Amino acid sequence: MYEIADKARSWAEIDLSALKHNFEYASKRIGRKVICVLKADAYGHGAVECGLYLQKCGAYMFAVAALTEAVAMRKSGITIPIMILGYTSPEYAEILSDYDIEQAIVDEEHAIAMNKAAAKLNKKVKVHIALDTGMSRIGIYAQKNHTAAADAAERIYRMSNLDVVGMFTHFAAADEPDQAEYTMFQYRNFSIVYNRLIERGIRIKNCHVSNSAAILNSPIHFDSIRLGISLYGMYPDSKPVKDGPLKPVMSLKARVTQTRTLPQGATISYGRTFTTRRTTHTAVISAGYADGFSRRLSNKATVTINGKRYPQIGRICMDVCMADVTDGYDEPGGVRAGDEVTIIGDGGMSAEEAAQIVGTINYELTCLITNRVKRIYVNG
Question: 198: Cβ–Cβ under 8 A, 6 or more apart, which residues?
């Protein structure tokens, strides 16, 4: 029987002790029950493995984006509540009920159809009512005319085959300090509808508004908090933070497959975008954009080998990339074939650094890390 080593080519190390630290930091900072957001395969970190670990750590609930994600987690042995933040068609009411999955209700029409589907099955579906307080994405419109929003929420609450276990909203700009007034506008909109329902004798048991940005920056919270990107040690505004309270969970790594010595004037990789200005020692590295090392980082990124950063040179290819490892090449510790390479994390570029280089957000980069990159879970 042949076996391929986990660290033969490219891999992502997931530090479970860092995951636990971030979870506990948010829990202690806010003093509320924590909904851990595991959508998009836990932002590339592995939803099932992270979920099973966080369940042991005391997570109150998990949130995902799709029914397939929720069912996979149930089948893996996760028993705590799971909610779907996005739309699910009422045709799947039976699956929602049988797998005990809590569904976001995006508007009253959605609620009516879900209730009708559940009634035909003689089942109940647990739901969270979404309020649109200012994101203009999903939810009952609650940016004004709060009485109408409360009326709609009450009608949903009283539907015979829906069990309303939560109500929530999503802040549009809680990660931007100059938008604090808008975050308060959203919070007030939610609070007004919440209080209108209280006046009618309706107290929905799990109301939640705070995302990672609000957890880190704002004092406004309800029954529980939704910990998303910060659970993985990344900051919602995607700006590098020195000595911050969070610990990065993922490190993307690869191997030096060979070293080469090129003369001055050699051009490297597709498009010949890099030309050597001296005799140059290069390393060929076993990770490319099909592994999640974005092509947009070409000639801008660094990689870390034996504790030292080296510039990535030439266009990043699908399966490999190159780095200039000339400095210190002939000294002890100089780069050689077989050496471990850190691309993101663990002493290398942070996800925030890489995101700033290409003008995106940190969690886009971790979500790009593909399935052929082995996830290795450490410090559990």
Answer: none
Catalytic residue among 20, 39, 126, 253: 39
Tell whether 131 and 272 lie within a shared domain: no
Q: Do 192 and 325 belong together in one domain?
A: no
CB 370 within 8 A of CB 7: no
221 and 279, same domain (yes or no) = no
One digit per residue, the tens of pLDDT, for the chain of length 380 reads 778 888 999 999 999 999 999 999 999 999 999 999 999 999 999 999 999 999 999 999 999 999 999 999 999 999 999 999 999 999 999 999 999 999 999 999 999 999 999 999 999 999 999 999 999 999 999 999 999 999 999 999 999 999 999 999 999 999 998 999 999 999 999 999 999 999 999 999 999 999 999 999 888 899 999 999 999 999 998 888 888 899 999 999 999 999 999 999 999 999 999 999 999 999 999 999 999 999 999 999 999 999 999 999 999 999 999 999 999 999 888 999 999 999 999 889 999 999 999 999 999 999 999 999 999 999 98
Cα angle value 90/93/99 (rounded, 5°): 145
Does residue 333 share a domain with residue 210? no
Answer yes or no: is 41 within a domain: yes
Question: Does one domain contain both 94 and 123?
Answer: yes
Query: 224-227 and 33-37: which strand pairing?
Result: parallel
* Catalytic, out of 116, 120, 205, 270: 270
Instruction: Please report whether residue 241 resides in a domain.
Output: no
Q: Are 217 and 174 members of one domain?
A: yes
Domain range enclosing 342: 250-349
Is 270 a known active-site residue? Answer: yes
Residues contacting 146, CB < 8 A, separation 6+: 189, 192, 193, 196
Whether 39 sits among the annotated catalytic residues: the reply is yes
Do 298 and 206 share a structural domain? no
Its pTM surpasses 0.85: yes
32 domain residue, yes or no: yes
What are φ and ψ of residue 328, in 5° steps? 80, 10
